[in-house]
Amino acid sequence: MKVKIPSIIENISVVESFIDNAKEKLNFNDNVYGNILIAVTEAVNNAIVHGNKENKNKKVEISLLHSKNKISFLVTDEGGGFDDTKIPDPTNPKNTTKIKGRGVFLMKNLSDKIIFEGGGSRVQMVFNLF
C-alpha cells in the first residue's frame, strides 16, 4: 500500500485514513494502532513542514510493508534531509519548555525500530504486531 500527498498540512487527514484502512485490512490491535497513528502522522508532519517546507508542489510518500509479525511505514519527502543525531533531547531540563523538538523523540519511542535513510529525507518505522 502506498499514498503520495502534496505538502499541505491539511493532508494529515489523508494519512489518518490510510492508517485506518491498514488497520481494517491487517487487523492489528489498538495499542499498535495508537503508536502507529501518532508516530506516522508525526513523521508526515515533519516531512511536510521541515522537509518540504510546506511547498505544495513537493510530495510526501507514505508506504506500508507488512509481514506476519511486523508492519513498516516508510515516509519520504523531497527535502534536503537532516541529521537525527543532532536533535536536542526534549527530556533534557533545558529543552522541556520548548514547543518544538518532540516529534522525532515520539517516533523513536513509539516504534519498535526506526531507520533514517537518504540523509534524513526518508524514515522507516517498524512496529511489532504481537
What would you note in describing this structure?
With 130 residues, this protein is an alpha+beta fold. The protein has one domain: Heat Shock Protein 90 (2-Layer Sandwich), CATH 3.30.565. 35% of the residues lie in helices and 25% in strands. The protein has three helices and five strands, in the order E-H-H-E-E-H-E-E. The chain has helices spanning 12-26, 30-51, 103-110, and strands at residues 2-6, 59-66, 70-76, 113-117, 122-128.
List keywords for this structure.
alpha+beta, 25% strand, five-stranded antiparallel sheet, 3 helices, 130 residues, Heat Shock Protein 90
Q: What would CATH call the class?
A: Alpha Beta
What global shape is seen? Answer: globular
Given helix and strand content, the structural type is alpha+beta
Q: What percentage of residues falls in helices of 4 or more residues?
A: 25-40%
Question: In terms of topology, how is this protein built?
Answer:
Elements: E1 2-6, H1 12-26, H2 30-51, E2 59-66, E3 70-76, H3 103-110, E4 113-117, E5 122-128
Antiparallel strand pairs: 1-2, 2-3, 3-5, 4-5
